[in-house]
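Protocol step 4 of 6: structure prediction from sequence.
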Amino acid sequence: MEGTFPPFALGDHAMRNGGQVLVESLVALGATKAFGVPGESYLAVLDALHDTQGKLDYVLCRNEGGAGFMAAAYGKLTGQPGICMVTRGPGVTNASIGIHTAMQDSAPMLVFVGQVGTDMKGREAFQEIDYRAVFGTMAKWVVEIDDVERIPEILSRAWITATTGRPGPVVVALPEDMLTSDTDVPALTGPARIAEPAPEAGALAEALNLLAGAKRPAILLGGCNWSEAGKAALKVFAEASDIPVVAALRYQDMFDNHSPCYAGDLGLGLAAGVRKTMAEADVVLALNTRFGEISTEGYTLFQVPVAKQKIIHVHASTAEIGKIYIPTLGIPAGPNAFVAALTPVKGDWAAWRVRARADYEATFTLPKQPSPVDMVEVTAHLNAVLPEDAILTNGAGNFTIWPNKFFKFGPKARLLAPQSGAMGYGLPAAVAAKVACPERTVVCFAGDGDFQMNCQELGTAMQAGAQPIVLILNNGTYGTIRAHQERNYPARVSGTDLENPDFTGLARAYGFHAERVETTVDFAAAFDRALSSKTGAVLDLNIAAEALTPRVTLSQMRANALAAKAQK
């Protein structure tokens, strides 16, 4: 029931320390995995975790940044808060990249960080940080526990805050004396049961009338807190209503890409046809999405503050409705409850939906790539051979266009990719996915620069027995920045060339199967071996820097920029 708080255990309670109460409560809430790097500031928590193996397992990471990414990805994949445990000062500042990523992804996450004892606060003690000041604008909520008796209360609120409304990260600071102090306060015995807000009947009827009166309706969806039933209900509604569906940046896995209604994503490298679909739509049902910079083309795709399109914005958080665009109709409702209440609408727009789908399908027609390994053929092979429930991950860089634009996600496939554009996310996310779903095939796409941001987390994968397949698109450059250089400062390469190590040797040192793939014809057999490997695999793909984008080569970028410069 909405507003019901977690029950407490009854009866006599033995004295135990705050660290034990915290861990007992996490287990009761349903947490099964925690990602972290140990620190003396939360030794009591680590000690309590000793007794929860098999219930709440601690995944030992190599850097707090990797731990933060893993927790953020775990939350995005499962819908339950990803748990990150780090030490104070340097530990949590390393983890801050995961906190920022979880916030922009609207992913539930709890970050537990040690803090100096309450008797030391305010003195700039060793590694002391004012967490509210540092993370107040980065996290959804920041709290410091200053009374051991309040651990269950605050933990319950943190869990609810992370998972409801617009999900996001919560930072919980744990002063050492709060963890070592004894108490007989009862631990939590379960999570709160909070109903997802449903749409008001009049608002739902108005939304359906707006869609029915449209000439060119479209659905824009996003967010990570969709249930399987919710996604299925949305597909039924869209197909019965014959309305094109477009995904926000890196949420294309929330709708079956094989559906005749799917029309692409508003992501980086926006396809002209997708832009046309959203620009020409007259009614847009925006479901569970925030209006981010990328998904609005820098807030130009829809006019600010009142778009020419009629926008129906449905979101569980009222803070998101009207934040940027004044909607024709705003509906505070959860995505699953809203789509469960929908009934199909009919209109004379079949040709509109057909054209939107055709524009999306046309994006898969690509020229042969000027590269020893052609990613057009590689991605086509992956589309053909990966199981229907595969999980793909990526960090940031030009290479992400392949999993993000040219892989078709079916109803069971998932994509873990950061809306924040954080490099180094892909490998930790893939490890987290294997931790959460060890039976599923997980494939990480990583550029050579992106991979080296967190390549040490191969050690985490090895120790946890959570070893994914990693494809390193190795072109010897920071491709995205190189592309910008060639467009803005042609033929003046600065700070973007990379000298790389032997990635296969590095991977083997961490217990992975590893191969260098020199040509396209070698890929299929190498990937078969990767799929059959019991230790995960790293495939180092020989990609030419010339193939920076699927349709425009590096030389063409440079030539076009030089020609434009000469005309000035």
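Step 5 (inspection) to follow. The two ends are 67 Å apart (CA to CA).
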